[in-house]
């Protein structure tokens, strides 16, 4: 025992001596100060790992014609993105905003400020496409950007998410293929586009090289991308392979000297955008009359982009403010369209020959606000004349009164059109061939088609009687029977009545309501449907009308379609006629040869809502984005279990009846419904083969809403 204790003491002593010796050695080497902290590492994410990327220029300068820019890369959380390499898909552009003039017949005209790119290339037409109609191949200049990969040392990585780039193009010495004179006092714009497999970044920077100023300089910012998103989905505007997503980048590359060699058409941004949106309505005058003048561009691989298939939803297509939105938060030059400086926008919509009476393409020499040719008016006035009738009609109203039954038990009511001051409008100013539509069960998807077809629920004013003293029409709805259980039901009277206005044009000083004739135009009076609750033989004023569930946001429809849609241009009450059980329509282009005519089917299948998969292969409204039209709770399933849809069998065309939720889904998916999809619907209580509405209601036991909640549906459809 004593031996073991002694061994432990000796071992402990040895360890203590070792520790003391080591400590002494360390102490002997020390200068008496603690070691300094090392340099902090850079906090960042590698460019190959980031799921998002944003670029921002911080500085630009020109030295002896060489442009150098500094910029930062960050992800969506503000974390530096590291490791950008010249061999990434990275490109830079440089342009100046120069004063432009045009000489016509020895007269010089001011054309304002326009972008001119320094990088340009002369392009010869390639192999013509199979369909060469409306194409006029010719050599064209095209603005370009330079690839960072073409220079070994132009890009500098500072290692902290900041970078610099020196342009390969010396902008003080540009002579080929276009001679560009560098103006140090002109506003210049550098642009960047970075395309990663998982993310894209665009950026621009405007400055004046002579002073370095970025404020109080000449600019040309006309339209905001947010305005485009009113109708377009962001992904539908990701162009050139998804590389270019910012309007500022587009505008400084699509310059007035740029064209498409295969078509011979200009791709100047102003010209191109207006020509595209004129779409199928673009025409030109010939000796044989007006003929279509579709705007076409030949893209990558000889593919023809035929914008003559575009159906611009803004009707009438004269409201410049649809895109050129002014007011708070608007781009600085949003009102540039009122300046009447350039013919480019004019001829892009109206073509160089809009009528036989036009012999000059110098449109603004007559159509301007400062030296207007007699009777023509400026562009703002001429477009405004076309729209003024709609503004006037929108301020009018429709008054329903004396709602009751006639001696035969038929619905009877009076209707009066009133001007903006509430005064009755005489029948001579009213298009009496327009109608009032009657419906009930507003909260239950309106009357069943079998009970009262829509054609039996609409009544022309001219078919009623007119009291000229009271300026009131009396309508008797003799073509349908009042429902036997009418008491307590919500009814609606919906006016599609139109009033007449003179047309604008040469020598027309003002637009005003005018006695109807074959020389006038008629415009719908905008008024919401009048709802009331029926009781006994008339209106029960003590009862609150039951409203249909909120599905569509009419304001969203209006933002794209403006004043006119398809027919009955008083708002978006289409479902009052196009009920879910409305008859099918013969159409050989649809599987089975029969298409449904319900509102949901028509809206989802509308050509303009479906362009991603047809036409020019470039979607305006992508059909998978439910929020484009629907309210936030507009796709809740299970809310109308007694609704029945009428479809045509996709093989035989025979009418079939479909249960509520399944029918809503089929309005998009019927063409593509697989056997497994159909089996899934049926297994969960849906009916796809009903023999009648009663058959469906007897057998249906849908449980779709159990799994498919609104959030899940929105995510599934790409929202």
Automatic annotation (TrEMBL):
Question: Which residues belong to the signal peptide in this entry?
Answer: 1-24
Q: Which GO terms describe its molecular function?
A: electron transfer activity; heme binding; metal ion binding
* Top-level division of the source organism's lineage: Bacteria
The record ties this protein, via Pfam families, to: Mtrc-MtrF_II-IV_dom, OmcA-like_N
Where are the annotated segments for Disordered? 120-139
Q: Do you know which InterPro entries this protein is assigned to? A: Cyt_c-like_dom, Decahaem_cyt-c_OmcA/MtrC, Mtrc-MtrF-like_dom_II/IV, Multihaem_cyt_sf, OmcA-like_N
Cite the entry's keywords alphabetically: Heme, Iron, Metal-binding, Signal
Q: Which NCBIfam families match?
A: decahem_SO1788
Q: What protein is this chain from?
A: Decaheme cytochrome c
């Amino acid at each position: 025992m004593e031996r073991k204790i002694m061994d432990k003491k000796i071992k402990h002593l040895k360890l203590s001596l070792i520790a003391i010796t080591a400590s002494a050695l360390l102490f002997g080497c020390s200068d008496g100060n603690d070691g300094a902290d090392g340099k902090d590492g850079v906090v960042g994410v590698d460019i190959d790992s980031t799921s998002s990327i944003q670029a921002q220029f911080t500085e630009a300068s020109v030295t002896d014609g060489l442009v150098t820019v500094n910029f930062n890369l960050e992800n969506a959380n503000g974390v530096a993105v590291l490791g950008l390499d010249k061999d990434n898909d990275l490109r830079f552009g440089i342009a100046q905003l120069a004063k432009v003039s045009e000489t016509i017949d020895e007269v010089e005209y001011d054309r304002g400020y326009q972008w001119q790119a320094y990088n340009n290339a002369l392009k010869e037409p390639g192999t013509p496409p199979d369909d060469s109609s409306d194409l006029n191949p010719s050599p064209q200049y095209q603005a370009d950007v330079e690839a960072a990969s073409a220079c070994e040392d132009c890009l500098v990585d500072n290692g902290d998410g900041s970078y610099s780039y020196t342009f390969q193009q010396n902008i003080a010495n540009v002579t080929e293929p276009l001679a560009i004179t560098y103006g140090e006092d002109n506003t210049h714009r550098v642009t960047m586009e970075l395309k990663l497999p998982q993310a894209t970044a665009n950026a621009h920077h405007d400055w004046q090289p002579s002073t370095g100023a970025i404020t109080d300089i000449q600019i040309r910012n006309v339209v905001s991308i947010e305005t485009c998103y009113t109708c377009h989905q962001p992904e539908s505007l990701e162009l050139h392979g998804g590389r270019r997503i910012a309007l500022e980048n587009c505008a400084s590359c699509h310059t007035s000297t740029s064209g498409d060699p295969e078509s011979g058409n200009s791709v100047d941004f102003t010209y191109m955008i207006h020509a595209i949106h004129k779409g199928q309505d673009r025409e030109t005058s010939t000796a044989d009359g007006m003929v279509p003048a579709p705007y076409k561009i030949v893209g990558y691989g000889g593919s023809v982009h035929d914008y003559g298939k575009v159906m611009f939803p803004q009707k009438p297509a004269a409201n410049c403010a649809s895109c050129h939105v002014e007011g708070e938060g608007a781009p600085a030059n949003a009102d540039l369209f009122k300046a009447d400086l350039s013919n480019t926008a004019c001829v892009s919509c109206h073509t160089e020959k809009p009528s036989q009476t036009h012999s000059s393409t110098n449109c603004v020499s007559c159509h301007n606000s400062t030296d207007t040719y007699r009777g023509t008016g400026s562009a703002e006035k001429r477009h405004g004349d076309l729209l003024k009738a709609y503004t006037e009609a929108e301020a009018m109203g429709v008054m329903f009164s004396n709602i009751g039954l006639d001696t035969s038990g038929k619905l009877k009511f009076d209707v009066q059109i009133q001007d903006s001051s509430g005064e009755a409008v005489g029948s001579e100013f009213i298009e009496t061939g327009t109608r009032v539509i009657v419906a009930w069960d507003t909260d239950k998807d309106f009357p069943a088609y079998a009970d009262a077809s829509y054609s039996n629920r609409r009544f022309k004013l001219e078919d009623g009687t007119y009291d000229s003293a009271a300026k009131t029409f009396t309508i008797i709805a003799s073509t349908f029977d009042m429902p036997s259980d009418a008491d307590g039901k919500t009814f609606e009277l919906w006016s599609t009545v139109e009033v007449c206005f003179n047309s604008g044009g040469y020598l027309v000083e003002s637009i005003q309501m005018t006695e109807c004739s074959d020389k006038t135009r008629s415009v719908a009076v905008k008024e919401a449907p009048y709802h009331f609750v029926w009781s006994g033989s008339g209106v029960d004023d003590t009862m609150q009308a039951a409203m249909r569930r909120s599905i569509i946001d009419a304001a969203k429809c209006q933002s794209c379609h403006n004043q006119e849609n398809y027919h009955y241009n008083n708002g978006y009450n289409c479902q009052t006629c196009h009920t879910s059980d409305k008859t099918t329509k013969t159409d050989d282009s649809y599987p089975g040869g029969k298409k449904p005519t319900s509102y949901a089917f028509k809206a989802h299948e509308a050509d303009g809502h479906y362009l991603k998969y047809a036409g020019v292969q470039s979607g305006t409204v992508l059909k998978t984005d439910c929020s484009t039209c629907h309210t936030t709770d507009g796709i809740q399933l299970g809310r109308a279990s007694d609704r029945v849809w009428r479809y045509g069998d996709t093989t035989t065309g025979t009418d079939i009846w479909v249960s509520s939720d399944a029918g809503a889904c089929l309005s998009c998916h019927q063409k593509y419904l697989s056997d497994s999809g159909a089996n899934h619907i049926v297994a969960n209580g849906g009916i796809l083969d009903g023999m009648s509405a009663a058959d469906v209601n007897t057998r249906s036991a849908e449980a779709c809403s159990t799994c498919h909640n609104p959030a899940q549906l929105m995510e599934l459809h790409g929202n």
